[in-house]
């Protein structure tokens, strides 16, 4: 909550009777640029926007992260959905916040410089069993697309048959070392 809406946290602190300078109750991290210059990532909370075609599995990935069972029926996401959990990366504990905005609001998000600057990472989800789920946005196949941008190849996950812990570690690791 503090990451996404620090005013609300300050409001709650006041409500709960916190005395003193409430701003000192929050930890303000250095900019990512400054952290990278020093070569040491101090921040412990990372924000990742989860994007991709409708029905590609974004909500399922978010639910897997917070160990909720797979839903039996597909329900499109219409409101912003955020989940948080801890992830261990190379012996240190970090928090990863995954946020899905709903497929109708993605274009808007990607045009909004301020909101893009808030996030540490973008995670694009597509359904391997449905060609349209990647191609609606890009005109080359996923592996070619990644190669052209110098990104690691797409990761394959299944919330039905595989544990998904690795992917959340990988996401956090990339956020820490982009
Ligand atoms: N077999 C299989 N089905 C999956 C997997 N992930 C999601 N699904 C199914 O795909 C459907 C859509 O999943 P959602 O996670 O709701 O998709 P979404 O991307 O959040 O969709 P929107 O909110 O409409 O954008 C559901 O019926 C899921 O059960 C997976 O890893 N394997
Ligand atoms: Mg969804």
TrEMBL record:
Family matches, as Pfam families: EF_assoc_1
InterPro entries noted in UniProt: EF_hand_assoc_1 (IPR013566), P-loop_NTPase (IPR027417)
Residues annotated as signal peptide: none
Protein name as it appears in the record: Mitochondrial Rho GTPase 1/3 EF hand associated type-1 domain-containing protein
Top-level taxon: Eukaryota
Domain (Mitochondrial Rho GTPase 1/3 EF hand associated type-1): residue spans on this chain: 1-39
């Amino acid at each position: 909550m503090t990451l996404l809406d620090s005013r609300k946290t300050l409001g709650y602190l006041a409500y709960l009777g916190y005395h003193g300078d409430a701003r000192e109750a929050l930890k303000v991290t250095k900019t990512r640029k400054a952290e990278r210059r020093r070569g040491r990532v101090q921040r412990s909370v990372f924000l990742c926007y989860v994007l991709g075609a409708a029905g590609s599995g974004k909500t399922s990935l978010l639910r897997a992260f917070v160990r909720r069972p797979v839903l039996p029926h597909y329900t499109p996401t219409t409101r912003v959905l955020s989940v948080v959990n801890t992830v261990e990366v190379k012996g240190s504990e970090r928090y990863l916040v995954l946020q899905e905005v709903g497929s109708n609001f993605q274009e808007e998000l990607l045009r909004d410089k301020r909101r893009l600057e808030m996030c540490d990472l973008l995670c694009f989800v597509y359904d391997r069993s449905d060609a349209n789920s990647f191609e609606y946005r890009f005109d080359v196949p996923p592996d070619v697309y990644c190669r052209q941008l110098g990104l690691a190849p797409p990761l394959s996950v299944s919330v039905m048959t595989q544990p998904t812990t690795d992917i959340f570690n990988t996401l956090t690791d990339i956020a820490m070392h982009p």
